[in-house]
Write a structure and sequence with these properties.
This protein has helices spanning 15-30, 40-46, 63-69, 120-125, 149-155, 170-182, 188-196, 206-217, 223-231, 240-243, 260-274, 278-286, 305-320, 324-340, 348-359, 364-377, 383-386, 392-401, 413-436; strands at 34-38, 55-59, 74-76, 82-87, 90-96, 98-102, 110-114, 135-137, 142-144, 157-158, 185-186. With 437 residues, it is an alpha+beta fold. The protein folds into two domains: 15-154, 2-Layer Sandwich (Beta Polymerase, domain 2), CATH 3.30.460.10; 239-436, no CATH class.
Length: 437
């Protein structure tokens, strides 16, 4: 207990790793330096998660002295020493404490200073968010938290360490990604700092932006990535097609949740609860992009938004450098998500065509069913109780149960047509069974 607050054990769970880190800490101390555990491991421990990946920072030593204590380590990076060392069977990154000086525009416009004179407090000051700006001394069992990271974790809030946050535009996307991963809100002053960085966002490489987006899509709350960017006024810098959904009206009777952006965020959240597949989550994100291009005279209704969405998904995906498979999955979600809700009105052969179209993409039949189901759930209120999962998966099982050997027809086009008709009949029978339930 410190100050009446229980402090978790910040050391890794693996005994061999713990022993190796303590041994290195003792050798560093013997040379006049100090070793600290830093980064996400401390944050995760305070969140009640097991500590596995460990980053270490060493203050008070020169680069040569640090390297001498880790003779088998591999050096990475050019500006300052970062060593990847095997400690007790686990690869850990060990870096000298460092600080950065802003020298130019963008994410790379920095000069890095490291050496025995850089304290751990100076190292923490250069970090982005308070929840990432803590250090733990394993020799004294002391948590160093000069900026209140522990309190911000307890409050579920992301706060910039200092105004130096505004020196690196990549922090806009990192902060949004942390919101998605941790389920945290972003403090208003930090949102303001993010907004101030918007003019510098075009200086970032698309690859770095997409890397943060991809990590956010895999997070428990991917919608918070885009919500946070929107709140900071930064969504349009790289995600213009998504930003265009803000303020787009929808029919209140069918969409009491609000505009097309709010609907999209709810759909993404619901899809994330049902699937961890990134293509499914991306499909949910882009399923309604076409609503942003609805002619004003047709609002709040959106006839044809499914067709219009196909090109918008393509332009967004190509600009971000996404894979062809990811783009096609998103385009299928945009084009066919409404049709899923109407399978009970379709002829069996048309349902077969829809199932085959989905099966040819990485979204798949189940992924398309999830996007469509999330589309129904993403309306706020009691929609979660009203809507049921579309029966696509069961219909696809009925389709696949009928094979070419079950059909009497000569090989070639006639066999294909006969197989399609037989599968359509099987799908119609299954639909009738489902409707009787």
């Amino acid at each position: 207990m410190r100050g009446g607050i229980a402090v978790p054990n910040f050391m890794p769970q693996d005994t061999a790793v713990r022993v190796a880190i303590l041994g290195l800490a003792q050798r560093v101390a013997a040379r006049g330096g100090r070793l600290y555990i830093v980064g996400g491991g401390l944050r995760d421990a305070l969140l009640g998660r097991a500590v596995h990946d460990v980053d270490l920072s060493v203050a008070g030593l020169s680069a040569d002295s640090l390297i001498a204590e880790l003779p088998g380590a591999k050096r990475v990076g050019n500006q300052f020493p970062v060593l990847r060392a095997n400690l007790g069977g686990s690869v850990c990154e060990v870096a000298l404490a460092r600080k950065e000086l802003k020298t130019g525009v963008g994410h790379r416009g920095f000069e890095t200073v490291s050496g025995p004179e850089v304290s751990i407090e100076a190292d923490l000051l250069r970090r982005d968010l308070t929840v990432n700006a803590m250090a733990y001394d394993p020799l004294t069992d002391r948590l160093i938290d000069p900026f209140g990271g522990r309190q911000d974790i307890a409050a579920g809030e992301l706060c910039a360490v200092s105004r130096a946050f505004g020196e690196d535009p990549l922090r806009v996307y990192r902060t949004a990604r942390f919101a998605a991963q941790l389920g945290f809100t972003v403090a208003r002053p930090t949102l303001a700092l993010m907004g101030d960085l918007v003019p510098e966002l075009p200086s970032l490489s698309t690859e770095r932006v997409v890397r943060e987006m991809e990590r956010a899509l895999l997070a428990p709350r991917p919608d918070l990535f885009f919500r946070t960017l929107a709140d900071a006024g930064a969504l349009g810098a790289h995600f213009a097609e998504i930003a265009a959904l803000r303020g787009v009206p929808q029919p209140p009777r069918h969409h009491p949740e609000g505009d097309a952006f709010e609907h999209t965020m709810l759909v993404l959240q619901c899809a994330a609860e049902m699937s961890a597949a990134p293509d499914v989550r991306f499909g949910a994100l882009v399923h309604d992009l076409g609503k942003a291009t609805t002619p004003e005279e047709e609002l709040p209704f959106h006839p044809g938004h499914d067709d219009r969405g196909v090109e918008l998904v393509g332009s967004l995906g190509r600009r971000l450098g996404l894979s062809t498979q990811r783009i096609r999955a998103g385009q299928l979600a945009a084009l066919r998500h409404m049709r899923v809700h109407k399978v009970h009105e379709m002829r069996g052969v048309k349902v077969v065509d829809l199932l085959q179209e989905a099966a040819r993409t990485t979204l798949g039949v189940e992924g398309l069913a999830i996007v469509a189901h999330a589309d129904g759930l993403g309306r706020g209120g009691d929609a979660r109780r009203r809507d049921g999962r579309a029966p696509l998966v069961e219909l696809d099982a009925a389709r696949r149960a009928v094979r070419g050997g079950d059909v009497k027809a000569p090989p070639g086009k006639k066999l294909g047509a006969a197989l399609r008709a037989a599968q359509g009949e099987a799908v119609e029978r299954r639909l009738q069974e489902l409707q009787r339930v």
